[in-house]
Amino acid sequence: MHTTQQILAVIGEEIKIIRHLFGKMKPEQLTFSPGENMRTTEELLRYLSYVSASIAAWHRAQIKGEDASGLFKKYVEEAQEMDINTFPDAMDEQYKQVATILNGYSDADLQTKMVKTFAGKEITLGEATVKTVITYLSAYRMQLFLYLKQSGQPELGTYNCWMGIDPPPKE
């Protein structure tokens, strides 16, 4: 399985790509929503600003046997108060929070500590971290990429979405 440092490297890469995509966004794209009952780009960014830290904190609360009932509400409220222009800083802060939580475990803990999924299934902390913290960042990064393309930036492509860089100039 993976080590804490490998997991943190993947999380760091996802955050780098998300920050790159945010840097490509035009202010008028914040209000874009691809359909009824779907998040706007701004709402998606606010969600991205806390999703991985909140899940990592939820896992930690389970392991410590703590009450996590108000945990997500705290993160949602902080995201609602965030100045959207500080989104890159919020992503950096989120990485620090996740790193602090994960660095509190040994690599062996990832294989032996058990947590419950939202569906109530018990799995290892390592598997839960990959299935939630990493997967959510990746999935919502893709959603952000598609929102940006749909709302006026068709020039964005594979390099932007998967590597967090602009494509090399065409020869």
Report on this structure:
There is one protein chain. By secondary structure, the chain is mostly helical. Helices cover 63% and strands 4% of the residues. It has eight helices and two strands. The protein has a two-stranded antiparallel ribbon. Helix 2 runs antiparallel to helix 7 and helix 3 runs antiparallel to helix 7. The radius of gyration is 17 Å and the shape is globular. The chain starts with a helix and ends in an 8-residue tail after the last helix.
Describe the secondary structure blueprint for this structure:
Layout lengths: L3 H21 L16 H8 L2 H14 L6 H11 L5 H16 L4 H6 L1 E3 L5 E3 H26 L7 H6 L8
Antiparallel strand pairs: 1-2
Helix pairs in contact: 1-5, 1-7, 2-7, 3-5, 3-7
